Amino acid sequence: MKFSKSDRAYLEKRKALSAKYGPRDLWSVIDHWGLYCGIGNLSRAVAVQDLLRGVLGVPGHLAEFGSWRGANLLYLAKLLRIFDPLGQKQVHCFESFEGLQTFTSADAAAERTRGKYKGSYEELLDLIDLYELQDEVVIHKGIIQDTLPLAIETSPSLSFSMVYCDIDLYEPTALALGLLHPRLSSGGVFVLDEWNNDQFPGETLAVREFLKRHGSEYAVEHVAGTRQPSLVLRKRGG
Q: Does the model's pTM come out above 0.90?
């Protein structure tokens, strides 16, 4: 897999550097993030910012499926605070906080990641409170197969301009694409984080099946300058 050798070397060097200089205060690292942040993570942040700014003029909220600890979720919320502080857009978070659980045969060897990416709901709430992002973030706690249909049923007016899919697995990815296709505004985007990733084949399969049904309604775009996200589906005008 591309970058595997360089990633291993980077992680070893990072580990050695950490041992050399010892622990750092959490907030000191955060405030000097440009010093400590890896280029791969930085390139992803730049790509996500560009995607969000590209849909600021598109009606509808943002959604993230698979938020793990909430880093990208709060990043999106903070970007909204900066670029659209008086607008109505919110970020809807769909996350179980229990790690990966709902595997099918389409997910193949991804089964070995069962339980991985378990987040902390309480810590996320504390950080939302710290940055006063309560108006920007809406959390739907539970597995996507339960929370997404419920969200649509209880809020039939929900529409979206950007749907960030970091789900990894086949069934919830297929569900999110299928249910939110009619609720994604023209010019809005589905953003896939693990598309074309051999470790999580279910996400790619779900996208292929979705495009068989709706391919003529979307422009398929590569995300330049970053390895993740790896695909954008931009909804064509009606």
A: yes
